[in-house]
Design a protein that fits this description.
elongated; 434 Repressor (Amino-terminal Domain); 3 domains; Lambda_DNA-bd_dom_sf; single chain; six-stranded parallel sheet; alpha/beta; six-stranded mixed sheet; 334 residues; transcription regulation; Rossmann fold; transcription cis-regulatory region binding
């Protein structure tokens, strides 16, 4: 909910609404009453940080530390990019832990003026935090779309995972592969579902019959290797894997083993272009997320809110880049 929507509902200007909130003595009593009715009817809550920006802006942006498996490398790289982007805009990043009473921790940090707003990194399907922040007028931006709920009023920046995995399939097809498997998370992770959808879309576009060549596992190398081994044990096994992350790709590479020449028996493409992808022997191709651009967009969107620009609540979708590393696996079997 924005101040412009309140103004439209009350039939007044944005400045009049602002005056009712900050200097009601400047507004006629009947007009102020009409504005307050619109505020109550719409459930509008002023942006707290924008209201207090001049008085006690902290110039700090809060980011909760997270530790689910598989995200530490991505978080480290994003944090570096976010720190640089925030610093260029005159802000600092404040890291904090919130094991218990997470929502209370967010509110305390805003109430005490410790931070001006937040970046949400670990946004899950149906995450309760975006609507909670929005109802309280707390500035925030998500890295990743708030899936499983209406998110048109939430600021977010995301990377098109479906596009990235589809480019991985295009690359593998260009090398002659026709049996291209997908290995990723179980259904329900949101971003994982989108990456799998990119594989399925590209397979259909290339006329590949790969509906049975998909597997899921926990995001560990051991679990991924076991899942990939089950696919590789089939009468017509895959000759290549497009994977939801580099961890899954490493597991698939290990499951495929190496031939007499020491070269991997299956070709794999990962996602995230982590350091592990470059350190494998031979190095793996992988889809690289544009984390520097993500960070710049996140900071810009948050600063807009802190400055009172709350009318444009929309998302930014960025495209990743496929990084190919030259090596040739086995000749594809058709």
């Amino acid at each position: 909910m924005t101040i412009s929507e309140v103004a439209a509902a009350a039939g007044v200007s944005r400045q009049t609404v602002s005056n009712v909130l900050k200097a009601p003595e400047r507004v006629a009593a009947d007009t102020a009453a009409r504005v307050r009715r619109a505020i109550d009817d719409l459930g509008y809550r002023p942006n707290r940080a924008a209201q207090n920006l001049r008085q006690r802006a902290s110039r700090c942006i809060g980011l909760k530390m997270v530790s689910p498996p598989g995200v530490s490398n991505l978080l480290d790289r994003f944090l570096h990019a976010l720190t640089e982007a925030a610093g260029a805009a005159g802000y600092h990043i404040l890291l904090f832990a919130a094991v218990d009473e997470e929502l209370g921790t967010y509110e305390d940090l805003i109430r005490t003026g410790t931070v001006d707003g937040f970046v949400l990194f670990d946004v899950e399907v149906g995450d309760p935090r975006p609507p909670w922040f929005a109802r309280r007028g707390i500035p925030f931006v998500c890295f990743g779309r708030p899936r499983g709920q209406r998110h048109e009023r939430f600021r977010w920046v995301d990377v098109d995972g479906a596009y990235g995995v589809a480019r991985a399939v295009d690359h593998l097809v260009s090398l002659g592969h026709r049996r291209i498997a997908y290995l990723g998370w179980p259904e329900g992770t949101g971003f994982g579902d989108e990456r799998r959808a990119g594989w399925a879309e590209a397979a259909r576009r290339h006329g590949l019959d790969v509906g049975h060549l998909t597997a899921t596992s926990a995001e560990t190398v051991t679990a991924a290797a076991s899942a990939a081994a089950r696919l590789l044990s089939r009468p017509e096994p895959p000759t290549a894997f497009a994977c939801g992350s580099d961890t899954f790709a490493i597991g698939a590479r290990l499951a495929g083993g190496t031939g007499a020449s020491g070269r991997p028996n299956v070709e794999v493409v990962g996602f995230d272009d982590s350091a592990a992808a470059t350190l494998m022997s031979p190095p793996m191709s992988s889809v690289r997320q544009p984390l520097d651009e993500v960070a710049r967009c996140v900071v810009a969107a948050l600063i807009d809110q802190l400055g009172g620009v709350d009318d444009v609540a929309e998302g930014v979708m960025l495209r990743p880049e496929l990084v190919t590393r030259e090596w040739r696996g086995p000749e594809p079997v058709h």
